[in-house]
Amino acid sequence: MSRYLEAKEMYAKIGIDTDIAIEKLMNVPIALHCWQGDDVRGFDQKVDSLSGGIQTTGNYPGRATTPEQLMADLDIVLKLSPGTKKLNLHACYAIFDDENGGWVDRDKIEPKHFKKWVDFCKERGLGCDFNPTFFSHPMCDPLTLSSPNEKTRKFWIDHGKACIRISQYLAEELGQECVMNIWTGDGFKDIPADRIGPRARYKEAIDEILSEPFDFNKVKPCVESKVFGIGVEAYTVGSAEFSLSYAAANKDKCIPLMDNGHYHPTEVVSDKIPALLVFFPEIALHITRPIRWDSDHVVLLDDETKEITKEIVRCTDLDGRVKIALDYFDASINRISAWTVGLRNVQKALLIALLTPDMTNLQNSNNFTEIMVRTEDIKTMPFGDVWAEYCRKCDVPLDNEWFESVKKYENEILSKRG
Ligand code: RNT
Ligand code: ZN
Description:
This protein has helices at about 5-15, 20-25, 65-80, 115-125, 150-175, 195-210, 240-250, 270-275, 305-315, 335-355, 360-365, 370-380, 385-395, 405-410, and strands at about 30-35, 85-90, 125-130, 180, 185-190, 220-225, 235, 255-260, 285, 290, 295, 320-325. By secondary structure, it is α/β, with parallel strands linked by helices. It has a single domain, classed as Divalent-metal-dependent TIM barrel enzymes (TIM Barrel, Alpha-Beta Barrel). A hairpin with a 1-residue loop joins strand 10 and strand 11 (about 295). Helix 3 (about 65-80) runs parallel beside helix 10 (about 335-355) and helix 9 (about 305-315) crosses helix 10 (about 335-355). The radius of gyration is 22 Å and the shape is globular. The termini are far apart. The mean pLDDT is about 95. The structure holds L-rhamnitol and zinc ion. Zinc ion binds next to loops.
């Protein structure tokens, strides 16, 4: 008997149908963040180093510097990763060329600047999420949507509105919803004299952006909170309370987004998921790995990642109410491996969750001993055999079978990039 069939029998004994789990996982879209491929630089500005509260560290060779290179790199990741993928683009990845009139600033970008990305997605059957880029730009003063300077605010509000139109275009062209995430690094390095002014302006600015017409069934604007960033240690305008309150007060046009790198180190997003789902029909996630702070390390198959996916599965049965996206950027290692490891790990964690029996009844009858015993026993079940079967069904390489091809690509292509 094959290892998969043996594993299937073992899982059947604890009430799990592995075929159903595999089938379910295949259809869960996970948004792949284009920005791991070029250290969050994009193509619209000359970026020497990032600004606006985020930072990439490392200087590994082979970063993509053109849309063609980034697309080629993404293609490798797509081939090496099982399941349903979406692309996740930032506005700074607009493609300007002679055919579409050349460069324009961020307040003037249009759907046509993303036509090549639409073609890329169409050819691969992908949906696409989108993000306005409120950082690494001369119009950060350093604030954006919360700036006291009207000209600055208007520029960034116009950028946000342009992004709503582009998101609507992406959703319509690709026939899938487009999650459009609003994150800014607005904040202060030291204790502010005025904490409420920036937040009041931020609220008004997001109101204005969301007054741009869009279909909420197709475009899902989000507000992402943050606790602090490099250079803005003392105060973040879009704090957790601000962002959650904004989303709660604007449920007809906005959903909350939690990035698990954006909380105090002992807080866990896994526990926040069910809390939010009691109040919000839909929520969005950025899955990352914080080490001590929002360090955006590659997602590993660690306990909190598994706890996050367990909650997604328990609370929603993967019905799409939780929008799953990756958000990390490690510039110190091979970027294709970084992308692939993180994406495969989120898939693995979801599969583990699908292979875990629902023990709600045990909890409701106060059988806490049995919950502990069963939870620990599951850890030695033959998960790897089901994962291997999932990879085979998705026609992607198994663990231990893909890294050689990335090394080859590095030798032949990445190492030759200037
Ligand atoms: C930054 C936020 C934000 C960005 C991306 C590039 O701390 O997590 O989501 O990482 O938009
Ligand atoms: Zn994020």
